[in-house]
Amino acid sequence: MIRIRGGRVVDPANGVDGEVRDLWIREGRIVAPPPEPVPDVEVLDAEGMVVLPGGVDLHSHVAGGKENLGRKLRPEDHREHVRPREGSLRSGSGFTVPSTFLSGYLYAEMGYTTVMEAASAPLFARHAQEELEDLPMVDKGLFITLGNNHFVLEYLARGEEELLRNYVAWLLRATGAYAAKVVNPGGVENWKWGRNVSSLDEEVLSFGVTPRKILSGLAESVRKLGLPHPLHVHGINLGQTRSAGTTVDTAKTLDGLGGHLCHLQFLSYEEASEGSSLFRSAASRVATALEATTLSLDVGQIVFGGATTMTSDGPLEYALHRLTGAKWINDDVEGEGGGGVLPLSYDRRSRLSAEQWITGLELFLLLRDPWRLALTTDHPNGGPFFCYPQIMRLLMDRSYREEVIATLPPKVRSGALLPSLDREYSLSEIAVITRAAPARILGLRNKGHLGIGADADVALYDQVFTDGTPCRCAKYPSCRRALSRVRHLVKGGEVVIRDGKIVKEVSGRRLCVIPPFDESLEPRLRKQFSETYSVAFENYALEEGEFPHREVVPCSKT
Amino acid sequence: MTERTEHVTCTFCGCLCDDITVEHEDGRISSVSRACPNGRAHFLDYAPAPHLPRIRGEEASWEEALAEATRILNAARSPLLYGLSSASTEAIRKAVSLADRLGAFVDSTSSVCHGPTGLAMQAVGEPTCTLGEVRSRADLLLFWGCNPAASHPRHFARYSTTAKGRFVPEGRKGRTVIFVDVRLTPGARSADLFLRVDPGCDFEVLTTLRALVREKPLREQEGVCLGGVSLGVLRDVATRLKSCRYGVAFMGMGLTMTRGRDVNVAELFRLVAELNTYTRFSVIPMRGHGNVTGADQVLTWQSGFPFAVSYARGYPRYGPGEFTAVDLLRRGDADAALILASDPAAHFPSRAAARLASIPTVVLDPEESLTARGATVWLPTGKAGIDVPGSAYRMDGVPLRLRPFLAPRRPSDEEILGRLLEEVAP
Questions:
Q1: Cα–Cα distance between B403 and B100 in angstroms, integer?
Q2: Mind spelling out the 3-state secondary structure of chain B?
Q3: What is the pLDDT of residue A482?
Q4: Nearest CA to CA, how far is B139 from chain A (Å)?
Q5: B403 part of contact set with chain A, CB < 8 Å
Q6: Distance between A212 CA and the closest CA of chain B, angstroms
Q7: Which of A266, A324, A400, A554 is spaced 20 to 30 Å from A493 by Cα?
């Protein structure tokens, strides 16, 4: 048993905001204080510390085919960013695309204990799962891309809803995945013939469906299967001047069906002026449209500096290649989709980058309800995940925000809404968008909070740094900078970081769903399979028990 | 009693054909169908009977052999781990962990094969696709400096020239096939167009082709080397490349291991990237060993770099030409070696092979290769996909599970490397 004694607990899901109280942990869970004294209690002294649930990242590219192409593509990213091996901990390298062990350590040191790998083509799921096996310290799950899947497109075109639902369930099980995702629905299939889609009603070549039909059909399937996380949506027109319009349209299409709109910053632009090729923030328009729905979102904030873009949105990466001339990877995946990788840098002197930065922060500040919002950078697309504390500070500290705004190009600054927004996030609201809300959006009932029965993932932060310097912003509730590095971290009921040092490497659990499906689907799939795939049906699905540490998250009945 | 196992994956080459049927009786493979000659030998030549390890040629117990291997690795100041490419992904993961723990050099057979392809990718990127896309969509296939008829015999029928696919239902008739090579190989004989390039002149031809694709005004000049190909022919090729619907280039060691190496490959990758201005075009390197792609993948996700890694300073450093096995051995840098599933004694240049013969070596290999015969310790292990489980990556990065169909009677590489990882000094 572990007792975390005397910390200021911030647990917004249970209405606790900075009260000094003890937490008790047994067998990996938060438990009620024992009525009588118990022997062998390990006491973790949290006096003067802020105690938060472990962080939950619901959208990050940390493992799998694209991520590894990004690592391989960029030795220049790794050379000066290395960590030596320490004891039984592994060495690693990489800045925007760190190696797997290093990624796990960096997440833990920031106080994060759950991470979702945001996109893998189902055909590459085994690769992603193998990398997740080597990503220690965090619980993890995998989203699979379905928005350009040939079976999905065909079932939708023929209106076979039940078959589609069965197929989605089968595929989630076959890949050991946690959630279903769409990326540029229809656009990636069209890209294989050199095209894209620009509106929700444009036709997907040779399939006779539209992006709108793909979105609503899949969202409906996911809802009827009762998956814990709604359809995870990367919309069309990402990064383009017309994206806000299609985002609003997407939100309307999905309202009532459920959905999570990811890295919305990249999808909230409009023309800077009539006919202009430059874009400006349309965050207020998008925020207003979203508030009229029940959908959730994550921001995908950019961070000034280096990044590596990687997405299943193949045509987008090609457009970036045309724009910047940077080295470009594309990967078309048979019957399922595609993707690309390209190094990119966000420069505060660039109008484009500055607009993107402003758009993200406006989304954060304009959306009143933090419970539908998650903090992400779409790692490593908008910047590396270990820059989250910088974003937290931008949200909590208006004066710091103003300092940065003052360095942006005057043309961008003058027209923007951001300088007039004076909202500051409280620590409790930060805990919502980095813990409680992402856990709730993911449907992880035992994560993101510290109530009885919750997973014992607990992050303890100093308000005074270990080297004796007090946090510059002094004390709770205005504590800001301390959130960058934990003093202690409890993961699954074990102390894994003590006094800032990783003392134990844990493998973390693999979160997945097993929605029920009708077995009669398999013979039918088997017949169609060889038309689409170059691997045998029998060799496609992961084997039962191929990957250890599995935790099945239940689906709700509908 | 004869048993039959279907949908077996062959790990001989990077095609990873997963439609093989194997018949086996009393723990021995009796027949193999659908496999190419290389694949048949892969299965039929493997004797899965238990075998004792050897220390300096003498049979020894597993405990003795592991103790000796541990002693060798602990005593080494600068060990090299080499090979990886025919081992399972799980074994490679353990091998790279071991290299990290030992502060060793780690390199795969990529460095003497498609290493330059990796360098080209790092320089200019790589537009690529999976083999199923080739089958479904490609109406133009360009083979450059590779001989699939010998190295990947089922490539044509399963994935490329003669395969029928969703958008190419007529198969070979629906595809234009162009071969570029220094000699007329069997595959090139059935091509629609064969370009014979003078040896060592691939770069000149590629760069001219790029210029023609971009419609730069060029004219034939006396004495200017076009690598033995006329400008007229190249004009025709450029037009075909630009006017196809979905083109795919395949390249092999005719580009990576001739004059220019990574510069040749980068020029091809640039050409392919630029063709996407006019149509869709991809490139797939014809990777050789069954899991050489997996070796690149694991090294990259664990260290950040695909091959030629040194852990000597306690963190990964990348040094093609410096930490590549041949260069290390030629300089006399490694003082012990662990060889996993490859045969460098047979394939390395003589100076590197001589150095390897002069240092203590631990060899994990199902077969008694030349390297195993000269090893200080040979640990005869099982073969993933036959008698031990594992997984492997196809040349296009598609990961496949290797299911054993024979009962295991030998330890796996993964098990042995796991034991060594526990035994070596931290």
A1: 29
A2: CEEEEEEECCCCECCCCCCEEEEEECCEEEEEECCCHHHHHHHHCCCCCCCCCEECCEECCHHHHHHHHHHHHHHCCCEEEEECCCCCHHHHHHHHHHHHHHCCEEEEHHHHCCHHHHHHHHHHEEEEECHHHHHHHCCEEEEECCCHHHHCCCHHHHCCCCCCECCECCHHHHCEEEEEECCCCHHHHCCCEEEECCCCCHHHHHHHHHHHHCCCCCCCCCCCCCCCCCHHHHHHHHHHHHHCCEEEEEECHHHHCCCCCHHHHHHHHHHHHHHCCCCEEEEEECCCECCHHHHHHHHHHHHCCCCCEECCCCCCEECCCCCCHHHHHHHCCCCEEEEECCCHHHHCCHHHHHHHHHCCEEEECCCCCHHHHCCCEEECCCCECCCECEEEECCCCCEEEECCCCCCCCCCHHHHHHHHHHHCCC
A3: 65
A4: 12
A5: yes
A6: 25
A7: A554
A337 at B interface, C-beta within 8 A: no
Where are chain A's structural domains? 2-52+445-506
The answer to whether B53-111+290-382+411-423 and B115-285 have equal CATH topology is no
Which chain B residues have a beta carbon less than 8 Å from that of A134?
A: 93, 301-302
Q: Which residues contact B97 (CB under 8 A, 6 or more apart)?
A: A90, B302, B417, B421
User: What CATH number should be reported for the domain whose range is B53-111+290-382+411-423?
Assistant: 3.40.50.740
Stretch 327-386 of chain B: residues touching chain A, C-beta under 8 Å: none
Query: Does A245 lie at the interface with B, CB-CB under 8 angstroms?
Result: no
10 Å Cβ neighbour count for A311?
28
Dump pLDDT digits (tens) for B382-401: 999 999 999 999 999 999 99
Residues 479 to 538 of A: which have CB under 8 A from any B CB? 531-536, 538
Structure token pair of residue A498: 């003590």
pLDDT digits (tens, 9 = 90+) for B152-161: 999 999 999 9
Strand ranges in A381-528 using DSSP code E only, listed in sequence order:
458-462, 488-491, 494-498, 501-502, 510-512
Nearest CB to B129: which of A82, A332, A543? A332
Q: Which residue in the set B125, B303, B400 is minimally distant from A328, CB to CB?
A: B125
Q: Three-class SS string for A54-116?
A: CEEEEEECCCCHHHHHHHHHCHHHHCCCEECCECCECCEECCCCCCHHHHHHHHHHCCEEEEE
Contact B401/A65, CB-based, under 8 Å? no
Beta-carbon separation of A98 and B304 below 8 A: yes
Please identify among residues 341-370 of chain A the ones whose CB lies closer than 8 Å to any CB of chain B: 341-342
Using CB atoms, which residue from B19, B166, B301 is nearest to A100?
Answer: B301
Angle separating helix axes A388-396 and A351-366, nearest 10 degrees: 60
For chains A and B, count residue pairs whose Cβ atoms are closer than 8 Å.
186
The CATH H-level (homologous superfamily) assignment of domain B115-285 is: Dimethylsulfoxide Reductase, domain 2 (3.40.228.10)
**Contact with chain B for residue A80, Cβ under 8 A:** no
Among B303, B309, B414, most A C-beta atoms within 10 A, so best to mutate, is B303
Q: Which CATH class is domain A2-52+445-506?
A: mainly beta
What ranges do the domains of chain B cover? 53-111+290-382+411-423, 115-285
Shortest CA gap A349–chain B (Å): 26
Express each pLDDT in A461-513 by its tens digit.
987 544 455 554 434 444 555 688 899 999 999 999 999 999 999 999 999 99
Would you call A72 and B306 a contact, using CB atoms and an 8 Å cutoff?
yes
The one-letter code for the residue type at B70 is T
pLDDT given for residue A464 in this prediction: 53
| CA neighbor of A404 nearest in space, from A472, A333, A470, A354 | A354
Chain B residues 127-146 within an 8 A CB cutoff of chain A = 127-133, 135-137
